[in-house]
Amino acid sequence: MIIKHLAIIQVILPLMAAPVCIVIRHHVGVKIWAVLISWLSFLISIALLVQVSDQGLIVYQLGGWAAPWGIEYRIDILSAFVLLIVSGIGAVVMPYSWTSVEKEIVHERAYLFYCMILLCMTGLLGIVITGDAFNLFVFMEISSLASYVLISFGQDRQALVAAYRYLIIGTIGATFYMIGVGFLYASTGTLNIFDLSQLVPALSASRTVKAALAFFTVGLGIKLALFPMHMWLPNAYTFAPSAVSVFLAATATKVAVYALFRIVFTIFGGTEILEILPIRGLLIGMAAMAMIYGSIQAIYQINVKRILAYSSIAQIGYMVLGLSFDNATGIAAGIIHLFNHALMKGSLFMVLGAVMYRVDSVQLNDMAGLGKYMPLTMAAFFIAGLSLIGMPLTVGFVSKWYLIQAALEKGWWPIAMLIVISSLLAVVYIWRVIEVVYFMPANPEAREVREAPISLLLPTWILLGAVIYFGIDATTGLNIAIAAADALLAGGGS
Amino acid sequence: MPFPGLFNYWIVVILMMIGLYIVIAHGNLVKKIIGINVFQVSVFLLYITIGKVAGGSAPILDQGIEVYSNPLPHVLILTAIVVSVATTALGLALVVRIRNAFQTIEEDEIDQQEKTG
Fold first, then answer.
1. What is residue A448's predicted lDDT score, i.e. its pLDDT?
2. Is residue B33 within 8 Å of residue B88, measured between CB atoms?
3. Strand partners for A60
4. How far off is chain A from B98, nearest CA to CA, in Å?
5. From CA A97, how far away is CA B5, in angstroms rounded?
6. Rounded to an integer, what distance in angstroms lies between the CA atom of residue A15 and that of residue A35?
7. Which residue has the higher pLDDT, A269 or A145?
């Protein structure tokens, strides 16, 4: 009975749980509640993934209204995989935030924080699960509004400005997406993504449909911080509370990439529009520039959170690059990188949360010599950093390997070279941190610093365990990614 | 084409450009929010124009009403208006807090304060 309704419960559960936080109000109660909900949500997404891989596509009609009139939730292997990423990160971040939030947000406001992070999760899960283009817009705004609030929780007053700028640019992005939906609705009369995928191919020549694709690309490009539409990202990640940086860096941009996958492949995949309108070429260009620009900017930053934020821009470049290859290997590489990057960026930001907890700063200078005083924390940074560079036996290697293979399959040598160059630049910015942490003498006040508390270390190492596990045994993730890529290429809503 | 013709669409485009221009060109944080509002309203108009059927009445089940406008875009825009109101409220709330923290709501003055720390 309940199995049949898992699809809707996945979204309803955090949505209903969010206002309950305000009722509970007491900070201990709220923490336990949030952890409980996030774990339940994780279990549901595992159940959904198992269900999808056993029986294929799950279609759930809301309120029993048949599509395309009603809203339907459509879960294929790709959406089940991304659901798992989002709820999995949520399940790790919630217990992590117990200690982190205690330090960075005043007690009286903790319940608001949990309310917002649950709402943000609702929005992200909703984007992934929904099969309705306008419903996707609504969920996008739920998650975005919640994340503006989450960023403004930051201690520094600049967090407010960062949140405000993100609000302005994020709203423009979402509105562009809405214009795209409007154009498609005007020319097809449907909002259902599966239905759209059936109707759009016949309209390849329509200028309205082409304009819709352009608006989708720009709108989602802003949301996923694709170069040169990334300006909101570095400040937002830097000034947000640590737990929020972890959550947003690991999920929000990934979900926007997922939405772009849906638009480009499911709706427009079977059409000639992608040939008429060179969206792919454009995406490759922007992705390549993102890879280089992000990595170079990361080298020159003195705030470690900002280093990671710029590195995120470069990594988003990898994902979009995989998407624009138009061969199964490339798309699989893009999808697997969604997962891998969520794991490694999540653990890197968690390390910085632990540093923030002990040292009260994440400036590079203030981290000098910490390798001696916080060995486990810094070892985590080292391993996750290696993964970001793409060392074998970590997940970063798997995705880069596939990405380069996809480039070679196409015979695009320069792109493969760019991937390697960007990885070398990653060596530079990760090494800058490693050098300061391990080889510089500690500041006098840093000598008092002890290892981070176990409540911060454990979640970090759980994510890191996943980084190593899926780096050594890559087949599980890869099989899912390849199945998802094949389904996407087959087009037509699969 | 008779008078109304593409009139609505022209208005949509003009409003959209005015809104975007305000967002980009104005340094005052409240004005930026107003710009965003104008921009969003233009999109609402676009949707409602799409839904209009020539000679159609309101979509009410009544005798003698054969042709009626498509109600779906109206409903969508109702949702979008709610989202827009929420965004505006949140944006203005942030402006209030920025004003408390920086004593100004002019972007260039905030930039200056950020630079000097």
1. 77
2. yes
3. A73
4. 6
5. 57
6. 14
7. A145
Q: Which residue in A119, A152, A168, A235 has the most chain B C-beta atoms within 10 A of its own C-beta, making it the best mutation to test that interface? A: A168
Residues of B in contact with A186 (CB under 8 A): 50
Q: Which structure tokens are listed for A310? A: 């710029």
Look at residue A1 in the predicted model and tell me its pLDDT.
67
The pLDDT value recorded for residue A371 is 87
Q: Which residues of B touch A141 (CB under 8 A)?
A: 83, 86-87
Question: Cis omega (within 30 of 0) on the bond before A228?
Answer: yes
Chain B nearest C-alpha distance from A229 (Å)? 14
Q: Which residues sit opposite B28 in a β-bridge? A: B106
pLDDT at A161: 94
Amino acid of residue A319: M
Least confident of A19-23, A160-164, A244-248, A438-442: A438-442
Provide the sign of the torsion angle of the four alpha carbons A75, A281, A396, A312, taken in this order.
Answer: negative
* Region A46-63 average pLDDT: 90
pLDDT at A290 over 50: yes
Domains and CATH numbers, chain B: 7-116 (1.10.287.3510)
- Are residues A164 and B50, on separate chains, in Cβ contact within 8 Å? no
The three-state secondary structure class of A363 is strand
Domain spans in chain A, listed from the N-terminal domain onward = 278-494
| Cβ A342 vs Cβ A251: under 8 Å | yes
Which B residues 88-117 touch A at CB under 8 Å?
Answer: 90-91, 94-95, 97-98, 101-102, 110, 114
| Tens digit of each residue's pLDDT (9 = 90 or more) over B5-51 | 788 899 999 999 999 999 999 999 999 999 999 999 999 999 999 88
Residues of chain A found within 8 Å of residue B50, distances taken between Cβ atoms: 182, 185-186
Residues on chain B touching A109 (C-beta within 8 angstroms): none
Query: Whole-angstrom Cα distance, residue A314 to residue A229?
Result: 13
Q: What is the mean pLDDT of chain A?
A: 90
